[in-house]
Every structure is written in C-alpha cells, then in structure tokens.
From TrEMBL, chain A:
InterPro entries referenced in this protein's UniProt entry, alphabetically: FUZ/MON1/HPS1_longin_1, FUZ/MON1/HPS1_longin_2, FUZ/MON1/HPS1_longin_3, Mon1
Source species: Musa balbisiana (Banana)
Start and end residues of each stretch annotated as Disordered: 1-52, 69-146
Function statement: Plays an important role in membrane trafficking through the secretory apparatus.
Designated name of the protein: Vacuolar fusion protein MON1 homolog
Family to which this protein belongs: Belongs to the MON1/SAND family.
Compositionally biased spans, kind Basic and acidic residues: 125-140
Pfam families for this protein: Fuz_longin_1, Fuz_longin_2, Fuz_longin_3
FUZ/MON1/HPS1 second Longin domain mapped to chain residues: 327-420
Sequence ranges assigned to domain FUZ/MON1/HPS1 first Longin in this UniProt record: 153-274
Domain of life where this protein originates: Eukaryota
TrEMBL record, chain B:
Native organism taxonomy: Eukaryota, Viridiplantae, Streptophyta, Embryophyta, Tracheophyta
Annotated CDD domains: Rab5_related (cd01860)
Domain of life of the source: Eukaryota
Name this protein carries in UniProt: Uncharacterized protein
Keyword Nucleotide-binding: yes
GO molecular function: GTP binding; GTPase activity
Keywords: Nucleotide-binding
Length: 590, 250
C-alpha cells in the first residue's frame, strides 16, 4: 500500500512532489489536478497546502479516497456500509424483522454462498457456449432446487398481485409461491406508507423497483452497489416496455390476477443477453466469441461509436439524413453495439438507453438475421405508451440498419430506403470500412501518444513503462473510459494485455461500477475526482462539466504519473474526436 | 374484428391500429369459390427460376411495387408474370419460418428462431405453362403478443397459408381460429391453404389427416401436409397455390 494514499497518512498535507515539480500542471485548463488534498477526504476536510488553486479547495469535500479494505468512515454510502441483515427503506427506521419467506427461505438465507461462485462461473461459461440463443436457462429449476438457490444473481418481474412475469432462472409458473412471497414483502412495506429499496441479508442484497402494477426484484450476492442493481432493474423494465409498451398495465386494471407470461414468451434470449451485458460481457451473436466484451453503456448512460474516419461517417450520415427527410423518424446504422451513424427527424433525439435496449433486442433476436423484418417496437424513453414500427435489416453479419417510423403502412417505403442506403454504403466503401474498423478494434492504451513538450519531459524520467511492451500503456495505464456529457457518448479502450483474462475484466468492470456509483451518489456526491488504490488496480475518476474519465492503472503505478497520463488521455480523445464520436446526432450539438 | 382476448385489445390502443383495423363488420361472409374446394393432388416439383432470395439482391427491381403494406392490389397480373402477396399464419413453433426458408433458400435450420413482428422474403416460381409467379411472403410471428398485428400483414394478401403442427392438437385449434379470422376480415377472394407441418414426426401425430382434410374441405381450403425438415411437399405447396391463383383473362 502506498502510504501517500492511505487515510492514516500521518502527514496528509505535505506537498505532492509531482505538483511541486511542475506547478504548471495546475494551471492547465481542464486538466486533472488532483493532489494530496484528496487523501484526507475520508476523515476530515482537507486543509490547503498552498499548491492548489482556490476553487479546488471548494471542491475538496467532493473528493474521496477510498482504500479498499480499510475501514473508512464515510465510505461509499453503498451496501458495504450496511453490515448484517436488515431492511433499508426510504423513510422508515423500522428495518429489522422481515416476514420470513416460508416458501423458500431465500431472503433469510445466510452464508450459504460458499460454493455459489463456482456454480455461477461454470454456469456463465456454459450459457455462453450452449444456451445462448435459446434463452431460458435451467427452466427445470425452481425455488426448491439447490442449484437455483445458489445462483449469484436473480432477476424477477412480477405483478403487484404476486403473479410471476419473468425469472432469470427457472420456470415462472413454478415460482408462483416465491413470487407471492416477494409481493408480500413489498406490499407489507408499501401498506405502511413506505417504499422498500433494498434488503441486506448476509451476503445477499435484495433490490426492489416498484413500477405499479409491475414489481421488479434483483437478488444478488455479487456485491454490486445498490445504485447499479437498481439501474439494471430499470433497464430490464425498459426492455419489457420495448416489447410490450406501458399499455400492458391496463391488462391488470381489468384483471389484477392477469397472467402476463404468455405476452413475453420467446423473449428469454433478449433478457438474458441484457443481463449478460450488465455483468461483464455482451452478446456476440451468432456464435459466442472467445473474446468477451462487456457493455459499459449499462451504467454510463451513453452510447459508443465505431471508430471511423470523419469522411466515412459523413458519407453514412448523409444518406441516412436523406432517408430521414422522407418521413423516417430515426435511421440508425450500427455494428454490434456500436453506432456507425444515427439520424433523426425534427431534431428528435434517441436516448442512449433506448439505443442500448433496441440494439440488445435486435442482436439477441435471431430472426432479424434471417431476412428483413418489420416489427412493432416501443422506445420507452421516447414514448413508453406507443409502438413505433422498426424495419430491420442486417447488411452483414454484424452491421444492421434500423429504420423507425410511426406509420404501420410504410414497410415498402422503408424497404426502398434500405435499398438506396445499402447501394450508397457499398459504393462509398462505408461497409468495408466498418468491417475493417471492427477488425482493427478501438483505441489501445499502448498507442497513447507521448507528450513531446520539454515541460513534460522533465517529468517523464520514470516513465519507462511505455517501452515495456506487453504490460499496457504508459505509466501503467491499463484501460480507460471517456464519456462526453455533451454528446451522450463514451469511448473505451480495448483491453490491454494485463487485463486480457476474463476474470480480470470482470474485476475491472465491477471496480468501474463501484467507482461510478460512488461518483454519482446523491448522498455524498457529485464528486469531481477520485483516486483509489486496491490490490487489483489504481483507479482514477475525473468528472468535469464536459466529460467523465475513468482510468485503471497498474496497482503499483505512481499517482502523479497516473494523473498526468489522464490528462494525456483527455488530449488524445479530443484529438481523435472526429473519428470516435458522432457529431450532429444529439439535439444539444446543433 | 373480434380480437382474441382483451389484453390484446388493450395492446391495440398502443399500436394505434385505427387504420390497420379497418374492419368491415357489415360485410357478408365471402363465398369461397367452389373451384378452390378441397384439392389435394400430387404434382411434379416445379422448376424454381431463382433459388436465391431476391430480397437480398441489390439489383432487385421494385418495378410496380406495392404502395404499402396494406395495398389492395396484392396481385399484379399480366398473364405471364404474377406477383402475389402471401401471408403465413399459425401458432408459434409450428414451423412457418422453416417452411419459408426451405422454399426460398432450400435450407432447414433446426435451431429455433422465434420470429419478431414479421419477416419479409420473396421467391419466384416458374410454372409448367411458363407463367412466372413471384411470391412476396410475410412470415408472421406466432407469439400471442403479435396476434393483434396480423391484420397489418394479411390485409390485401392474395394468399393465406395457415400452418399447424401435426403433433399438436392445440396448434390445429389455433389454425381454425386464424381461418375464422381470415374469413371475416381478409380480402374476399383470398386463396387459403391449410398446412399440417412436421409430417416427418408421424409417430407423434396428434391431428389426423382425415380431420384436417375435412376441415379444409368445409372451409374451401387447399390442404397439404409438409415437412420443412425433409423438404417433403414444400415446393408442391407453393406450386399448388400458384395454380389456384385467379388469372386475369387476357
Ligand atoms: N421435425 C420437424 N421440426 C420442424 C419442422 N419445421 C420446423 N420444425 C422445428 O420447429 C421449430 C419452430 O420452427 P419455426 O419455423 O421457427 O416456427 P414458427 O412457426 O416460425 O414460429 P414463430 O416464428 O414463433 O411464429 C424449429 O426449431 C424447427 O426445428 C419440420 O418439418 N419437422
Ligand atoms: Mg417464425
């Protein structure tokens, strides 16, 4: 452990050598200037050390330094601060005794997770290889099965009368009793005027999302933050709306005991691929690739673009715009979960969540790959009450065009549009460029340009890591994600060799998730910068009005160098913005 | 139209199907042309002009294309070249998509790919009398949530192929539901075929050919049992349909 970063640092106010050596860095506009001040955050408000600009002190209360494993008070307000079993409610202190679920004992189950991680790991791999497109996993299980109870992460959708609607594992109908138990817990609390947010029970966290008449529940022992799990439930709800619209609620007005499962039949693959994107890898149809990809869009609230030359993307946008002008609401060209181009009429904007849910739906529904399709689809962030009509056509294995319209009659028009678009894309080599970019991959930390100025060279003496190839980027940079707030877009680097293993990637994903949650925590945030060091990574997060940067370094990296490297990443992203971002798609960018 | 169950009726409001559910309640039940009565003949396999899926070809000419999904001129006829809008209906999993893919691409993929909304494919058939028939096929989704959308796809269709799975009585019932719906709401002159698919699974048969045949006869439909898996009777199905299309007298 680097003593500089420890909260028990006997002298938290000694000047940071890097800032000392180069005060100019502090002046740099929009540069990351995190210094020692942050180190004291967990305990007390830092005192000025004379090196940081005045406004930095003002923000000091927003800086958190968290050493994983050290008992910091004022740590993340997430689940880690909640020890044993108990319920946390929005307005109630009555958080002790819960009705013990008789049918399963799941919520009361404690310390049973000894072997559970093994099951989950094996289970994920198996799903990847076999069950992927077939959807429902282990339909034979129910809440009486040992294997079912040992699953690391369950998701349920049920009605407020306790009827099961969806379960990640097991057959919904067999889980009627369990579902009724969940309903009983929720309404027990609701009836007393409270709202149940989550329950901690040993290693398990039970998170609730109430969207009357629909309840969503996640039971997890993955130690993800509450906010992350809640967002996952929100996305699952959104995915359900994408398939059915919110008008499905009216089924329950007429008949509160209405069985909704038939309306979701055949969509298991859609939900399981979404759930996989939450965890750490994203659906890669048709054949699961050895290369595992995760989807940060599930927590970053942003979408990502396929890197392309400016002129190539322009060519794609021009023809999509042409089509949009002829009465198409949105024209969207994507390659897997990356956007090639997106155009909307009347400055209507497509929410990143809708894009995530739509692309998940299309990629996980095999039938779209067979031929061109015309299907009703609801974009919950655009309008949860109505169906739009989506014309979907795969131009090659990974690249698909989606044309959205409000008119149920426009199939032949959209088909013509697609033929025109496809002709132009082929002629102007956009499609071949797209395929090439897919092969080339995204930004690599190894390619981060070295700064050439004299000023910085004075600092780069220890920075030999860039020449030590095979261990990531300069200064031990292993990975980064940059989110442009302005554009609703993010760019993330490819995984460098130190995080090539899927277990390492999973750890990184979880670490980012926690970092994100702590930075956006309503209770203590919003924060501007955060520096963390644990046994796996050094993590740096920096949020400004324009962007959010998340970076992971070698756990032994030097802090000052890490900060400097972050500045270079930002500069690099800005230099490349025409290739990695799409301009003109967001209404704010006109 | 009578919408199957009210949850779906409620979904309809979301679908804003005001114009797609332009039902004609006052219209008398169409008289099914007697010449279309039960005809179950075996014919030689037809020669297929274009085994490739025309839809995927960029050169695909859309001359005289239909004006919309619901265009009433579902059959463009010039005695030797016929364009036909055909819709497949039936419960989920009976093998509609497999039938279409066998006919259009000559393939059978046993892995289940539940259709979303509806897929559009086309295929051309050359008949013995040198007539060329281009089928524009709507392969609809059999899942319940899409049931209320069916009018969008069958309205204006010249041919409706109602499919059931011979190993499931339930899917046969569902087929009868679709036949009734088509009789009420489809174009009056629509050619209807009843198809018992998965004929290769005869050891698990739950619907007798006799029952299906009688039902088809009663409702003026053409009946055939097929197997998308073995390709048995797939071409015959479309060949027979082509023969039954009304021709313009020129
Ligand atoms: N044995 C056998 N199986 C078949 C045959 N045709 C289809 N199947 C199987 O039935 C399953 C469902 O077939 P689909 O063509 O996807 O069914 P569908 O009617 O299109 O279903 P939806 O798209 O949900 O409406 C597939 O997994 C096929 O393997 C057949 O002729 N014989
Ligand atoms: Mg199908």
């Amino acid at each position: 452990m680097d003593s500089d970063d420890s909260v028990t640092d006997p002298n938290p106010h000694h000047p940071d050598p890097s800032l000392d050596a180069e005060p100019a860095t502090v002046e740099q506009m929009g540069s990351l200037t995190l210094g020692e001040a942050g180190d004291a955050a967990g305990a007390e408000r830092p005192v000025g050390n004379g090196f940081l600009p005045a406004d930095f002190y003002a923000a000091a209360g927003e800086i958190e330094v968290v050493e994983e494993g050290s008992p910091v008070s004022g740590d993340l307000a997430g689940p880690s601060s909640l020890g044993g079993p108990g319920a946390c409610r929005e307005r109630s202190g009555r958080g002790d005794a819960l009705p013990s679920p008789s049918s399963s004992g799941y919520a009361g189950e404690r310390g049973s997770s000894g072997g559970s991680s093994e099951i989950e790991e094996a289970d994920d791999r198996e799903t990847m290889l076999d069950d992927w497109s077939r959807g429902k996993r282990h339909p034979d299980e129910d809440d009486g099965s040992v294997s079912w109870r040992k699953r690391k992460k369950h998701f349920f959708i049920l009605s407020n009368s306790g009827k099961p609607i969806y379960s990640r594992y097991g057959d919904e109908h067999k889980l009627a009793g369990f579902s009724a138990t969940l309903q009983a817990i929720i309404s027990f609390v609701e009836n007393s005027g409270d709202r149940l947010k989550f329950i901690r029970a040993g290693k398990h966290q039970v998170v609730f999302l109430v969207k009357v008449p629909i309840y969503l529940v996640c039971i997890s022992c993955t130690e993800e933050p509450y906010e992350a799990l809640k967002r996952q439930l929100e996305l699952i709800y959104g995915q359900m709306l994408l398939i059915l619209t919110k008008s499905v609620n009216r089924c329950f007005e007429k008949n509160p005991k209405y069985d909704m499962t038939p309306l979701l039949r055949g969509t298991d693959a859609v939900f399981s691929s979404l759930i996989h994107a939450f965890s750490w890898f994203v659906f890669s149809n048709p054949k699961p690739k050895a290369l595992v990809i995760w989807n940060p869009a599930t927590f970053l609230n942003a979408y990502t673009c396929l890197p392309l030359s400016y002129s190539t993307r322009q060519a794609a946008s021009a023809i999509l715009q042409d089509v949009a002008d002829s009465g198409v609401l949105f024209a969207l060209l994507m390659c897997k979960n990356k956007v090639v181009s997106l155009v909307g009429t009347q400055k209507a904007s497509l929410h990143p969540d809708d894009m995530l849910l739509l692309s998940n739906f299309i990629m996980s529904s095999e039938s779209f790959r067979t031929s061109e399709s015309f299907s009703p689809i609801c974009l919950p962030r655009y309008n949860p009450m109505v169906f739009l009509y989506a014309y979907v056509h795969f131009l090659d294995v990974d690249t698909y065009l989606t044309l959205l319209t409000t008119s149920s009659d426009s199939f032949y028009h959209l088909k013509d549009c697609r033929i025109r678009i496809e002709t132009v894309l082929v002629k102007s080599n956009v499609l071949s460029e797209v395929q090439r970019s897919m092969l080339d991959g995204g930004l690599r930390v190894e390619d981060l340009p070295l700064e050439s100025s004299l000023r910085s060279r004075s600092l780069t003496t220890p920075e030999l890591s860039s020449s030590q190839s095979g261990i990531g980027g300069p200064s031990g940079l292993w990975h980064f994600m940059y989110r442009s707030i302005y554009l609703d877009q993010y760019v993330s680097s490819e995984f460098s060799s130190p995080i090539s293993s899927s277990s390492q990637q999973k750890r990184l994903f979880r670490a980012y998730q926690r970092l994100y949650a702590s930075m956006h925590d309503n209770g203590t945030g919003p924060h501007k910068t955060q520096f963390r060091r644990d046994e796996d990574f050094v993590l740096l997060c920096w949020i400004t009005q324009d962007f959010e940067l998340y970076a992971a370094f070698d756990p032994l990296s030097d802090k000052a160098l890490a900060i400097k490297t972050c500045n270079r990443v930002c500069q690099w992203v800005r230099d490349l913005e025409n290739e990695i971002f799409l301009f003109g798609a967001s209404p704010f960018s006109w | 139209m009578h919408i199957p169950s009210h949850p779906l009726r409620l979904l309809l409001t979301a679908l804003d199907l005001a114009h797609t559910t332009r039902y004609r309640p006052g219209r008398a039940k169409p008289k099914w042309s007697s010449r279309l009565g039960f005809l179950f003949r075996r014919t030689r396999a037809p020669g297929i002009v274009s085994p490739t899926d025309g839809v995927l070809l960029l050169s695909c000419r859309n001359a005289g294309r239909l004006d919309g999904l619901n265009s009433e001129n579902s059959m463009a006829t010039d005695s030797k070249n016929i364009r036909v809008k055909l819709v497949l209906l039936g419960d989920s999993g009976v093998g509609k998509s497999c039938i279409v893919l066998r006919f259009v691409r000559g393939q059978f993929d046993p892995t289940s790919k539940v259709t979303v909304g509806a897929s559009f494919l086309s295929q051309t058939l050359a008949l013995e009398d040198s007539t060329i028939v281009k089928f524009e096929i709507w392969d609809t989704a059999g899942q319940e949530r899409y049931a209320s959308l069916a009018p969008l796809y069958y309205r204006g269709a010249a041919v409706a192929v109602v499919v059931y799975d011979i190993t499931s009585q339930e899917t046969f019932k569902k087929a009868q539901y679709w036949v009734k719906e088509l009789q009420k709401h489809a174009s009056p002159g629509i050619v209807m075929a009843l198809v018992g698919n998965k004929a290769d699974l005869h050891e698990k048969r739950a619907v007798s050919s006799q029952d299906a045949m009688e039902y088809a006869e009663k409702n003026g439909m053409f009946f055939i049992e097929t197997s998308a898996k073995t390709a048995n009777n797939i071409n015959q199905l479309f060949q027979e349909i082509a023969k039954r299309l009304p021709r313009s007298s020129s």
